[in-house]
Specification:
The chain is mainly α. The protein contains ten helices and no strands.
């Protein structure tokens, strides 16, 4: 009964918020819809800059900054040039740091920090692996401590465990059951509002496919 009441309360709060700030919700909804049309660095940069403009107007809302950083992190994974990768991550880092100040109790913020730190690691795994793998683990650990059910935090943990497995004398595929379980239960997790992050299912599906 308590869970039902809590769920109803969350829905009502979301509806009230949407009624109070209809332009913000409409603009954010339209911008989030543009993710599906992004095919390259330029597309994500344009979208990221749009989220930055929203953040400059809606200074008390953390989600525009979240998606601004998310776009630039994705750009770093698409880019081949190491210097450009880092330059995109420099932009993302500023928003991630602001997010931590604005929403220190949101698990999604620390998942994004872990994602950003993974981007830094990927630029130069040989030189950065030892330092950044630990930082990624710390950030994602904070996310799981806040919300152990967060699917993106679980996905990051599986990816880290699989990556570290060979160095621990383990078979990366020993984590495949966890990935399959996560994929099967992914849609059971309900974001706090329609604007909250819901990415990651495709990545988990990719892990599961590689396990076959």
């Amino acid at each position: 009964m308590k869970k039902i009441i809590l769920s109803i309360a969350v829905v009502l709060i979301s509806l009230v918020s949407m009624a109070q700030k209809p332009e913000y919700y409409q603009t954010m909804g339209e911008s989030l819809g543009e993710y599906a049309n992004c095919k390259g660095v330029a597309d994500f940069q344009a979208l990221g800059n749009k989220f930055e403009m929203i953040a400059n107007v809606e200074k008390t809302e953390w989600l525009p900054l979240y998606y601004h950083a998310h776009c630039y992190i994705l750009m770093s994974f698409m880019e081949q040039d190491a210097a450009k990768k880092d330059s995109y991550l420099d932009v993302a880092e500023k928003s991630v740091n602001k997010l931590i100040e604005m929403a220190p109790t949101e698990a999604e913020v620390f998942v994004l920090q872990a994602f950003y730190l993974t981007g830094r690691l990927v630029v130069n795994p040989v030189e950065r692996g030892q330092e950044y793998s630990g930082l990624v683990g710390q950030a994602n650990g904070k996310a799981l401590a806040i919300d152990p059910s967060n699917p993106r935090a679980k996905m990051m943990k599986i990816q880290m465990d699989m990556g570290a497995a060979p160095y621990m004398g383990l078979d990366p595929k020993s984590f495949c059951p966890q990935a399959k379980e996560l994929l099967a239960s992914w849609d059971n997790f309900k974001p706090k509002s329609p604007l909250y992050p819901n990415w990651g299912k495709d990545q988990v599906a990719g892990i599961v496919k590689r396990c076959e």
